[in-house]
Amino acid sequence: MNLVSIRVITGDVARLVEFYEKVTGLPATWSTEDFAELETPGATLAIAGTRTVPLFAPGSSHPADNHSVIIEFLVDDVDRVHANLTAFVTDFVKEPTTMPWGNRSLLFRDPDGNLVNFFTPVTPDAIRKFAPTRPAS
Hints:
Layout lengths: L4 E6 L2 H12 L4 E4 L2 E5 L4 E6 L3 H4 L13 E5 L3 H8 L6 E7 L4 E7 L5 E7 L2 H7 L7
Parallel strand pairs: 1-4, 5-8
Antiparallel strand pairs: 2-3, 3-4, 6-7, 7-8
C-alpha cells in the first residue's frame, strides 16, 4: 500500500490552490475547474470543489470543517520558510518550535482553516529518519 494523496474539499478551489502554490512554491496541475493537484516527491495534495463530493457520496465531506487533520510538508529550513510566509499567511498558530520528536515545526492555517505544518528535522534521529526524502537546499 502507498499513500499517494490527501484531498481537501473547498468552496473556493482557485483561492485554495493559489494559497498552496504560494506557500509551497509548487505549480498546480488543473484537471477541471473543480480539481487541481500539487505534486511533491512523496505525495500529492489534491484540492477539489464541493461539486465533486456527490461523485463519492453525497454529504460525505464539508468544506472548511477540518478539526483533526494536519497537512504536513517537509522543508529544508523552516525558519527561512517562516520568514517568507509572513507576507501572505495571516493565521500563524505556532511560530517555529522544536518538538520533542526532533522536528522544528511551524503551524499555520490555510484560508479554509485547515492546519498546516511545515517542518525540518533537527535532531540526529529525526535527520536520519527523513534523510532519504529531505528536500534539496
